[in-house]
Amino acid sequence: MQDTRINKLIEKCASGEPKEQAFALQELVKMKADSAVPVILELLHSSDEGIRFCAAEALGDLGENEIESVGCALINLLVDPKELVRSGATDSLGILAYKPARDSIESLLLNDSAPLVRASAAETLGDLGDPDALDTLKSAMQDPDEAVRSYAANSLGLVGKPDLLPQLQTYIESEDSLEVKAELLAAKYRLGDTEAMKSLLTFLENADEDLATVMLNILGDLIDRKIPLTITSDASEICQVLNLLEKRFPLLAHHSQSIIAKLAVLKSQSNQV
Questions:
Q1: In this structure, which CATH number among 1.25.10.10, 2.60.120.620, 3.40.50.880, 1.20.1260.10 belongs to the domain 1-96?
Q2: 46, 48, 50, 53 alpha-carbon torsion, rounded to 10°
Q3: Structure pTM?
């Protein structure tokens, strides 16, 4: 039954009708139908920018088993005339951790005219995890766009080493954006500055709802990727601040509780070691 459904969706991909193709791509991703990858690769050549974008996104979810052909095809898409498509291809290369894309992604971060694409490139360099991208990420900390600097700061924490800590502090002192400062503090914490968590929590205690939302995402990321060794020892203090945050911003309660739950799991696992 499932194979029949997948085959029908693949037929829709070849229909030439963008609405049918977009629906089919979404459904194929939900069904984890990696057998559709060859057909999806063809859609990267669609005349419809929305379909090229959707196909690039789908390949990020389904392309792992055909990583070389998918990776090369996505790299070719990085010169697409539409910024949405370039951004989607960049994101998928990061999801697939396709390391041969690093040079092309660095070039986008330094040279692309679209902030959306540069932000995707900054994020993807963190996903690729190659320390050779450090100089490019440092350059991106001078980008005029706040989102680009935020993603670059996050990626510095993912690919850097503790010797980067003084440079991160310099960035904090010269940065006007509170969101970027928060990302830089999280990067410092990842790289071993245990005091950075206290500064992060002070930020959170005084944040408005928009900044608090950003900071919840930052805390969630710290729990999900390159987890700092000290986060379990800081868990109680983090949870205390999160519980207070919920009283100020009830709409953030679900997000806050999901972080508290993940911290509880990490703490339980550390106690079992």
A1: 1.25.10.10
A2: 30
A3: 0.94
